[in-house]
Amino acid sequence: MIRSSAQRGERPRVIANARLTGAGRLDPFGDDLVDLHLHGGVIADIAPAGTLAHRGPVIDADGGWVIPGLWDHHVHTVQWALVAQREALGGAASAAEAAAHMGRAPVLDDGRRIGTGFRDALWADAPSLALLDAATGNVPTYLINADVHSVWLNSAAFRREQFAPSLDGMLREEPAFEISRRLNAADPVVGDVLVARALEKAAARGIVGIVDLDMAWNADAWARRTAAGFDAVRVRFGIYPAQLERAIAEGLETGDAVDPAGLARVGSLKVISDGSLGTRTAACSHSYPGDPHNHGVLTVPPQDLVALMTRATGAGLSCAVHAIGDVANSFALDAFTVTGATGTIEHAQLVAAADVPRFARLGVGASVQPEHAVDDRDMTDTIWAGQTAIAYPLRALADAAANLLFGSDAPVSPLDPWAAMAAAVHRTRDGRPAWRPEQALDAATALAASTGEGSLARATLAPGDVADLAVVDRDPLTADEPSLRATRALATLLEGRLTHVA
Q1: Phi, psi of 328 (to 5 degrees)
Q2: Which run of H or E residues covers position 353?
Q3: What is the mean pLDDT of residues 276-291?
Q4: What's the CA gap between 431 and 447, in Å, rounded?
Q5: Would you say the C-alpha torsion 266, 272, 273, 278 has a positive or negative sign?
Q6: DSSP letter string, 311-345
Q7: pTM metric for this prediction
Q8: Which of 215, 206, 145 is nearest to 178 (CA)?
Q9: Which among 135, 139, 115 has a CA at the least distance from the CA of 125?
């Protein structure tokens, strides 16, 4: 039980009676209790508990473990925040069940029903316009796939959005993204409140930073939120191709702050180069079962990807390329090679063995979501059974010295760093046997991948480090799978300022 004489928003001077953890430690303390003395937003000293006087407010960690503050490197922030207002469809076992659920769902203030999180790839029945119309009537109704790459609409929703209806009621890839953009265009007065609440909950999990990849003009949104007092986490935000010229015209470069405190900063150009597993549009070398002509789609042709990355790199922007299938990953790595761009490949869910070492050689980070492997294990074993590339190759990437950066892809998976670490280390959930355990990571690598600079960065604490910290109730390096998922953050500090205290 933590005890603190400091409240949220205050700056404690000491974290007392704490333990240190992490790989590659050089400190002499072992499992002994220590005091971390903080000053000016950094760790000023670490000393055996009680040996230096305590001056100012104190957090008594009561034997808890202090770790570097955690990051989620892939969040669709507004869409994740709006999930609180939407119907959860993750438990729907069929199209008929999902449609019936939406027929009972409340109508939102804007006259629509919105559901999210369905996974139709293994349903015995198929979505159809007629099925959804029969269940939902004349209320515009939208069901967003868990992977966000497809949306199932009824006729009333097609009319409202002025899209031509299809027999299956499905929109995929860019048309689906356009629907999501419209649904996510919440009144800022409402949306910003939901974002603030959601990120306060993230801070309560030990999160000190996120990479926001909302499909919107994020520079103005984050300048507005921070001006209104938002201060829960650090933010690096993405820029999409449609906004690239605006960003260049405004002189925005990666790392630039859009607020006086420097909490919100420009991140990378985000390019979605292929589809997804669940929508069966990820660009793969082998076809999808029962559909010999379907190898997925390259939503951005390789020559266009090179042009975008060249333009961004010349303007001082790093690049984050969504690539799920092995073909998309190969082309993305080719584009990094040709352009000299810096940045990440987002997802890297299916990677050819020959491409794995290219991540490290090119210095391209692998921004991955370990919980997707657990969510998608049955789909992977079925839909990608014929693929010869490596699915969810975490261990292979780590062994090749690639820099891993963990995220959730929220709302695709919940924003929970402990779930991500547990999935990476134990490759399972809910008591099932470990899935492809040869790709499991050690806990120290998983912890480092959950920090701001990734698995190749030092995930230990030393005097002089910025005091982005979390105090947790167990050692993540020794916890089993259920315990790791149940880890509680007792306190979270951002540059020495409390953003959460239990």
Answers
A1: -65, -40
A2: none
A3: 96
A4: 22
A5: positive
A6: HHHHTT-EEEEEE-SHHHHHHHHHHHHHH---EEE
A7: 0.95
A8: 215
A9: 135
User: Whole-angstrom Cα distance, residue 350 to residue 354?
Assistant: 12
Distance between CA atoms of residues 220 and 367, nearest Å: 25
Distances from the Cα of 206 to the Cα of 25, 65, 98, 288, 460, angstroms? 21, 12, 34, 40, 15
Amino acid at 232: A
How far from 185 is each of 82, 137, 180, 214, CA to CA, in Å?
10, 24, 8, 11
Q: What are phi and psi of 188, to 5 degrees?
A: -55, -30
Residue 1 clears pLDDT 70, i.e. is over it:
no
Sheet containing 113-118: give its strands across: 87-88, 113-118, 141-145, 150-153, 170-172
- Comparing 22-31, 66-75, 211-220, the range with the smallest average pLDDT is 22-31
Is residue 271 packed enough to be buried (19+ CB in 10 Å), middle (13-18) or exposed (0-12)? Answer: buried
Say if residue 411 is preceded by a cis peptide, omega within 30 of 0. yes
Percentage of the chain lying above the pLDDT 70 cut = 100
Q: C-alpha 273: how far from its chain's center?
A: 18
Which candidate, 39, 53, 46, places its Cα nearest to that of 22? 46
- Model pLDDT for residues 430-461, shown as the tens digit of each residue: 999 999 999 999 999 999 999 999 999 988 99
Name residue, tokens 């820099």: 403
Provide the residue count of the chain.
Answer: 502
CB atoms within 10 A of CB 38: 24
Q: Which residue has the tokens 């266009």?
A: 304
**pLDDT, tens digit, 9 for 90 and up, residues 241-269:** 999 999 999 999 999 999 999 999 999 99
Q: Residue 186: is its pLDDT beyond 80?
A: no
Read off the tokens for 308: 């975008």
Tokens 């939102």 sit on residue: 108
Phi then psi dihedrals of residue 364, to 5 deg = -95, 125
Strand, helix or coil at 120? coil
What span, in angstroms and rounded, lies between the C-alpha atoms of 89 and 100? Answer: 11
